[in-house]
Amino acid sequence: MDTPVLEIRDLVKNFGKVEAVRGISFAIRPGICFGLLGPNGAGKTTTIEVIEGILSPTSGEILYKGKPRGRAFREEVGIQLQSTELLLLQTVRETLEVFRRLYRRRAPLEELIQTCQLQDILDKDNARISGGQKQRLLLAMALANDPDLIFLDEPTTGLDPQARRHLWDIVGRIKRSGKTLVLTTHYMDEAEILCDEIAIVDAGRIIAMGRPADMLAAHGDGTVMTLGPGALDGCLPDHFPWTLRQGEGGVAIHTREPGETLKTLVSLGADLNRLSVRAFNLEDLFIELTGRELRP
Ligand SMILES: Nc1ncnc2c1ncn2[C@@H]1O[C@H](COP(=O)(O)OP(=O)(O)OP(=O)(O)O)[C@@H](O)[C@H]1O
After folding, report:
1. Which atom of ligand 1 is nearest to the CA of 45?
2. For the stretch 207-227, what's the b/e string if a residue is b when 16 or more beta carbons lie within 10 angstroms of its beta carbon?
3. CB-based contact 90:106 (threshold 8 Å)
4. Which segments constitute the ABC transporter domain (predicted)?
């Protein structure tokens, strides 16, 4: 098997009495997109900031291509931060040019512009670009040293749906070019689309890890039927054979026999006016594992 690009062993990070990361371990194979998922405060950013070297670990081991992080790590890693402040009076082109000059190893400027779709905004001041354009520029900056391993911390938080999709296309293109990506996100749909493997983090620990499809198959899969609030009031029998939960503005039923479930709901006289049916997804998995919604 290939040496993992990154291997984390029993990582712990405390801030005083706050145990932000409580013994996280994982290994990332070359060329994949690995996602760290979890709700606010789960410990995702702390984990990647420790790996990046921005924070020091309380304990644990971090190996890059099988060795402790050193010069190769600093030269071969690209980081897209959540809150980079750009110089407002610099243009997009100037920002990229200045940033590239910081490195000995550099990606060609034209390639960065093409990959991150910056052609139309090169002469705009950073103060005048949209949120999605800023994320694309930050991504180009993370690629400036032609890195082997790229960290993206919540790259689409705050973007509108169109800008999110645009960024997903670009991340997909970077992945196809053979680079390894580590991504943090709260969005399960984003992880399902972009990530080959994911770790779901909650309260500083990994609670599930693997390929999204394997994780879904192992933990449930099937169908989720949602009904409006009160749709089962007064008609729910003592023994209802499928998992029920409150949420999504009503009641959600997890079933592997959608036809049978529907027949039962009809025979019980449930209110089906607001019935919707969809596949079980990673967000459902998170809720079933933790008993909590992913986002407040
Ligand atoms: N510098 C710090 N000092 C004290 N506590 C901190 C510090 N940074 C993070 N924490 C705490 O550590 C825990 C994990 O935070 P972290 O930012 O890593 O979570 P996250 O999963 O990235 O959340 P988000 O999605 O909101 O970014 C939280 O309880 C947070 O309040």
Report:
1. 22
2. ebbeebeebbeebbbbbbbbb
3. no
4. 6-228
Indicate which atom in ligand 1 lies nearest the CA of residue 18: 5
CA distance to 46, 109, 152, per residue, from 79 (Å): 14, 17, 6
Give me the residues paired with residue 224 across strands: 254, 278
Tell me the C-alpha distance between 293 and 296, whole Å: 7
Q: Which residue has the tokens 């200045």?
A: 98
Binding site membership of 223 for ligand 1 (Cβ less than 6 Å): no
- Tell whether ligand 1 has an atom less than 6 A from the beta carbon of residue 44: yes
Assess whether the C-beta atom of 24 lies below 6 angstroms from ligand 1.
no
Residue 75 near residue 145 (C-beta atoms within 8 A): yes
Question: According to the model, what pLDDT value does residue 13 have?
Answer: 98
pTM equals 0.87
The Cα 98–Cα 91 span in angstroms is 11
Residue 222: left (phi > 0), alpha (psi -120 to 50), or beta?
A: left
What's the gap in Å between 105 CA and the centre of ligand 1?
A: 33
Closest-lying ligand 1 atom to the alpha carbon of residue 36: 21
Predicted local confidence at residue 181, as pLDDT: 97
DSSP string, 53-72: TSS--SEEEEEETTEE--HH
Highest mean pLDDT among 90-99, 242-251, 284-293 belongs to 90-99
pLDDT digits 0-9 by tens, 198-219: 999 999 999 999 999 999 888 7
Q: Give the pLDDT band of residue 60 (cuts 50, 70, 90).
A: very high
CA of 77 to the centre of ligand 1 (A): 23
